[in-house]
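Appendix B. One record, verbatim.
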Amino acid sequence: METLAHERDQFGGVIVDASSLPSSADEFTARLEHSLSAWRGDGVRLAWLRVPISLSALVPVATANGFIFHHANEDELMLVCRLVEDAFIPNHATHYIGVGGVVINDRQEILVVCERYRRDKKPYYKLPGGALQPGEHLVDAVLREVLEETGVQARFDALVCFRHWHGYRYGKSDIYFVARLSPLSQDVIMQAEEIEECFWMPVEEYFESDLVSTFNKRIVRAALKSPGVVPEWIDGYGDPARYEFFMPASEEFGR
């Protein structure tokens, strides 16, 4: 009997070829048991198994043979089986990433939003922004979010600060970056589905308002005072679609 089609990884494990999985649970059971025995004999440390949702009937077979859930996407489940005692299993992604934009015009007004869906009926004002999409850069994400929520086009200037906290959503942690942007347009076109209010607020009024949190005031002060870090490409990393670098803006750091 042949083992399940697979390839070796650099950490002494095997990754089963999901496209070659048998659709029959009986055939899968027999080949999986044979494969696990062979891999243990070869000293393989971990076996990784990606099961598409179309073959979800195979999942109980895998768990009955020692596989545990590692992570899931909307159309597939990744499982892993420890074949060597105490073999290290790396965690799946632990964080959400979000970004907000500090957009201040020539009249010293800051672009603010009040979210439609919030815990308190009382309005509160914050920066436009949101979560990154898979494979999206920070620069692209903040420009997209500001445009989507407010209709204002902007230019990216710098990252100025970030917040890191735990216990955000589904047991994950969260990193929220703050970027300084320059507006390229002034007319506000609010995204009514998610946003209840959106307008230009005088910066001094923003700092004095009881409807703006201490955190949101502090990050705007950081945007006003800090040069931040700016995008800079570093040679040797190949595809710019995969990498994004930010370096100090000051000349003393080599810019």
